[in-house]
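pls read this stuff:
=====
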Amino acid sequence: MKGTYNNVVIYNGYPLSVVIAVTFHSVILALLLYLQSSKGPEALELVQPTVVKALLIQENPQVANERKRLERRQQQQRAREQEVAQQAAEADRQRREQEQADARAEEQRKARELASLRQRQEQERLDTERLVREREEQQQRDEELRRQRELAEAQRQQEVRDRERQQEAADAAAAELASSEFEMVQSGTAIIQQAVQSVWSRPPSARNGMRAILQIRMLPTGELVDVAITESSGDPAFDRSAENAVYSAAPFRELQALPINLFNENFRSLSLIFQPEDLLN
């Protein structure tokens, strides 16, 4: 009996209340008919029962399964797209690093070759001077020969000292220039960070621990070329707020004062990190 009732509920859609109502009304109707037949037609007056209608709407299991499969497929597609984007960004980063390493290696090779060439030229010059002095000294007395040798030694030592002083001066100038360039880079970076921070409106879904990394490309005039999300926070609203903040803060006109070589090395392509670490939640 229980199995039959379950089949009625599952296949025909009648809930328990409808089955009980129909059974109850059937019993009442049978009782009235019995009483009327036993006491005569004038004894009882049949009361028209109230019609009870019930409707149970359930979602088609096939439609629900298809919807779930579609949602899973969409999630998998988004995951694959994110993975492909991350792999492309990583490949591009490795390529740029390799290019930079190759460029540095080429510069070092050229510097070594130039230093070697200068050293050979200097050595050739010294050898020539030595040969000239030797030919002149051969015509003089032994004392003059010793004097010339002592003078040559003194000159050589003086040249060494002069080169050392020149090298020290060049090193000091290079250090001063590097310090000045570092300060300019730090100042430009702070300007960009302050400008973006002042217009960044974090969404209500922002939470501590979220992080989004954006790669921006700019022109020497400070104008923004494009913005790319290289690392997503996992929250589209958070990523979109960070991207909108960069577009709102641009252009960065203060970068026009930077030398072009500093701009190309540090600001042509720049990564910005967005982290809401000051939230209370």
Summary: The chain is about 70% helix and 5% strand. The helical segments are 2-12, 16-39, 61-137, 142-199, 236-249, 260-266. The chain has a mean pLDDT of 81.
